[in-house]
Structures are given as C-alpha cells and as structure tokens.
Amino acid sequence: MSAAPPTWTPVPTDDGSYTFYSETFQETFHSREGARQEAEQKYVQQLQIGTWAAQRSPLRILDVCYGLGYNTAAALESVLAAGEGHLQWLGLELDPTVPQAVVSSNLIQEWSPPVQQMLRDLAQTGNHQSDRFQGQLLWGDARQTIQEAIAQNFQADAIFLDPFSPKRCPQLWTVEFLQLVARCLAPQGRLVTYCRAAAVRTALQLAGLQITNLPAPASAFAHRWSLGTIAAWEPLPSLSQAEQEHLHCRAAVPYRDPTLQDTAEVIRQRRDREQQQSELESTSAWRRRWGLQADP
C-alpha cells in the first residue's frame, strides 16, 4: 500500500510571502524572514539576472532543487522587467507535489501573469515554452537527474544551488555531487547558494571552482557573518581572513558520497568519523578567535 502524498500547508514569512515546511527534512523551504525576498536578494540580484540576460541572450539557468519555484520565478520577473533577453532553463526537483501545491494553494498570485503561467506549466507538465522562457523540469533524485543535465551538455550561465541545509540533506552537498553540478557551469558562469558552510565551500573548491562570499550587512547578528557563497571558474574576490581560516578547521571536512547512492545518515556518519580523526583546529576555537557566535 503506497504512502499518502504529503500535505503542504502555506507558512507565512516576514515579507508577506509564503513557504512550506518539510516534515521529511524538518525545515522550511525558505528563510522565515522572507521567502520571495530570499529568492530575489540572494539569487537574482546577486547575479544581476535581468542585466545579464540582455547581454547573454539566451541566458541559461540551472535551478538545483526547484521547490516552490521562487528562484526561477524571480529570475523571469527580472528578465521581463528588463524588457529584453530570454531564459533557457533546466530545473531539478525531487517531489512534484511541491510545485503542484504552490498552484493549488494559489501562492502564484503574487507573481505577474506570464510567471504564473510558467509556474502552472512546470507544475503540471514539467515543461514551459514562451517567447521569453523555455524550460524543462526533471523529476527525481538530483544525484541522478544532474547526470541527465550533463548528458544534454547543458552549460549554465547561472546555477541556483538551493537544497535543504547540509545537516538535513547532506546528499546534495557532497564532493561527488558538486563535482557533477560544476560540470554544468559554463566557463564564465556563476553558481550561487545561500549556504556558507565550510564543508560546502571545501567541496566547491575540490570541484575546481573559485569561491567568494555574499557579505552580510553590518547590522547582522554575530553568527551571520556571511549570507551565502558564489562560485565560478574565474578568479573571484578573496574571502575575508576569518572565512579563509574557517576552511582550515574541522567544519571544513566535506561530505562524501562515492556512489551517489548513500543515505543521509550514512553520509553524516562518514563525515563524523573523518572529523574525529582530523588534526584540524576545532570549529569552536575558530569562532572564539573571531568573536563569532554559533548558529542558533
């Protein structure tokens, strides 16, 4: 007897937009400070998608963990507002009930009509074709569907990397998975993620990418020393001294999944063993030296 599909209840966030809470991963899909705000500020504005699309039309985007579709919706809104350019898009998503629930819950109403139609089409058929957007959504474990993207020789100008947190979903932050993601990044492309974890930054570097941070505002709490990470093949601005040292403590031991088939628990246990055997500085000592608080 098959399990009943999950029920997705809209959860309000501080900017007036809504997200969902995942019982499986024990996290919301977006920051409680603002779901739409997160998509716009951490992904679209950081890469200046609207301007970039006009310069590189078509602009190719790979959305890893499509979820509610907000990152892609915000990207298309930016392109539409710019008045020129269009997107060629590929998305990866495990659970089709999530985008379907966005439509059935009418969470698409805050977007413009063309973007609403895109969200409907992707939720219903996994495809959308219009003058400004051509997209395909691949369903299933991203560790396998990323290989389909590679087989298509999809070279993204922008990659949105947005899985659940490494502690909850380590299988999509491993060295092996990010090496595959990197193969989809164009020579002058940019990868952006909300994640600033040292383990993830180390994995991106092991994939051959350069990294820099999304700086936190001066008013941020002490534990918010960065809002995320940008990666590219090309040289990027250097990390701060504190962040460079972060990559030399035990927090920087990466997640590994040699067969791309291990469970989250097996991946966590493998990293725990490697950390226990490591002679790197403790992460708590690094935090004390820089006066940084642990994440709440």
Automatic annotation (TrEMBL):
Highest taxon listed in the record's lineage: Bacteria
Biological process annotations from GO: methylation
A Gene Ontology molecular function term of the record: oxidoreductase activity, acting on the CH-NH group of donors
Domain MnmC-like methyltransferase, first and last residues per copy: 115-214
Keyword Mitochondrion: no
SUPFAM superfamilies cross-referenced by the UniProt entry: S-adenosyl-L-methionine-dependent methyltransferases (SSF53335)
Keywords for this protein: Methyltransferase, Transferase
Pfam families per record: Methyltransf_30
InterPro entries in the cross-refs: MnmC-like_methylTransf (IPR008471), SAM-dependent_MTases_sf (IPR029063)
Protein name: MnmC family methyltransferase
Source organism of the structure: Synechococcus elongatus PCC 11801
The organism's taxonomic lineage, starting at the top: Bacteria, Bacillati, Cyanobacteriota, Cyanophyceae, Synechococcales
